[in-house]
Structure formats: structure tokens, C-alpha cells
């Protein structure tokens, strides 16, 4: 082993014995996303579920299922992202027209503001729709192969359940 590797291993062994004495220092050792972003996002997820009508929430759940996403947490995160997108529109407009860091003027400034508002308003929905479409295309492309494998397995003498098990194992 090289001297640098030995020195690194020695420092790592010293860190294993490291003990934090007070609770504040223990919490500060946690990554920033766990300390800051996770509580903020959990607040937005609770807030996002309340702001949307129940029919819309159910339609979003169905879209997530069609996209192959079976997590209730992802649905809540999506709803929170939609709320954040709509809430960010006034800030984006203020950033574009008041701060104007790029020095844009006229139609370019309007286009930049419109693009930001568009991303905030329909960005999450369009991404979810793209995932649904991609999954449906993948299913449509793979369906003939699945059917062919099922037919071959049944013709070879397997029962339908065994043919289905074999097909599920063979086709992702």
C-alpha cells in the first residue's frame, strides 16, 4: 500500500471512534437535504394534497399507475411540485421584470417570462404525460413478443398458469 492510502485508512479509523457530545452537533452531521429540504418538502406535500380537488388527485394517481409509478409518496410529491410551480410564477415574473439579470428588453423579456411561467404551470404535468406515453409505447411494442411466447409455451404443453409464469420470468 502507498503511504497516502495508509494515512487515509488511519484517518478513517480515527473517525470511527469519533463521538458527538451534544444533540445539536449530532443533527448538524446529517446531510443538508435531510435537515432542510426534507421538512420543507413534507410541508409542501401536505399543503399540495389539500389545495387540489379530490377528483384531480385521483386522476393524478391513475396517471402515476399508468406510468408505472406505484408510490403514494410520489403522487404527493407531484402535487407539491405543482403547487410550488404555480406559487413560483409571481416570483419568476418579478425576477424577470424587476431584477432582470440578463438585461433582456422588449419581446425577449416577455418570452423569457412566458417560458418561466409555462414551465412552472405545466412542466410537471407534461413530464408525467411523457412518462405515461413512453410506458404505453413500451407495452405496445412488447405485447406481440409476450403473446408469441405465451402461445409457444401453451403449444409446448404447459398449462396457462405455467406459461404465464414462464413468460413473466422471460420478459421484463
Question: What does the model show?
Answer:
It is a single chain. This protein has 172 residues and is mainly alpha-helical. The protein has 7 helices and no strands. It has helices spanning 3-16, 23-28, 32-51, 54-66, 72-99, 107-155, 160-170. Helix 3 packs across helix 5 (72-99). It is extended and about 70 Å long. The two termini are 44 Å apart.
Sequence-ordered SSE layout with sheet pairings:
Elements: H1 3-16, H2 23-28, H3 32-51, H4 54-66, H5 72-99, H6 107-155, H7 160-170
Number of strands: 0
Shape: extended
Uncertain regions spanning at least 5 consecutive residues: none
The ordered string of helix (H) and strand (E) elements is HHHHHHH
What is the radius of gyration? 26 Å
Structural class, from secondary structure content? Answer: mainly alpha
Distance between the termini: 44 Å
- The portion of residues forming beta strands comes to under 5%
Overall mean confidence score, pLDDT: 84
* Helix share bin: over 70%
Number of helices: 7
Main sheet characteristics: none
Write a compact overview of the structure shown.
With 172 residues, the protein is mostly helical.
List keywords for this structure.
172 residues; mainly alpha
Amino acid at each position: 500500500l502507498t503511504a497516502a492510502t495508509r494515512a487515509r485508512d488511519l484517518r478513517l479509523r480515527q473517525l470511527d471512534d469519533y463521538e458527538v457530545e451534544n444533540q445539536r452537533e449530532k443533527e448538524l452531521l446529517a446531510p443538508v437535504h435531510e435537515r432542510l429540504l426534507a421538512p420543507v418538502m413534507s410541508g409542501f406535500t401536505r399543503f399540495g394534497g389539500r389545495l387540489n380537488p379530490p377528483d384531480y388527485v385521483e386522476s393524478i394517481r391513475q396517471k402515476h399507475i399508468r406510468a408505472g409509478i406505484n408510490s403514494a409518496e410520489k403522487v404527493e410529491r407531484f402535487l407539491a411540485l405543482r403547487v410550488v410551480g404555480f406559487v413560483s410564477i409571481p416570483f419568476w415574473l418579478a425576477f424577470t421584470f424587476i431584477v432582470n439579470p440578463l438585461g433582456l428588453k422588449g419581446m425577449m423579456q416577455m418570452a423569457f417570462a412566458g417560458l418561466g411561467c409555462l414551465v412552472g404551470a405545466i412542466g410537471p404535468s407534461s413530464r408525467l404525460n411523457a412518462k405515461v406515453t413512453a410506458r404505453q409505447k413500451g407495452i405496445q411494442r412488447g405485447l406481440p413478443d409476450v403473446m408469441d411466447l405465451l402461445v409457444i409455451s401453451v403449444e409446448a404443453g404447459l398449462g396457462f398458469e405455467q406459461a404465464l409464469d414462464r413468460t413473466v420470468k422471460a420478459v421484463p
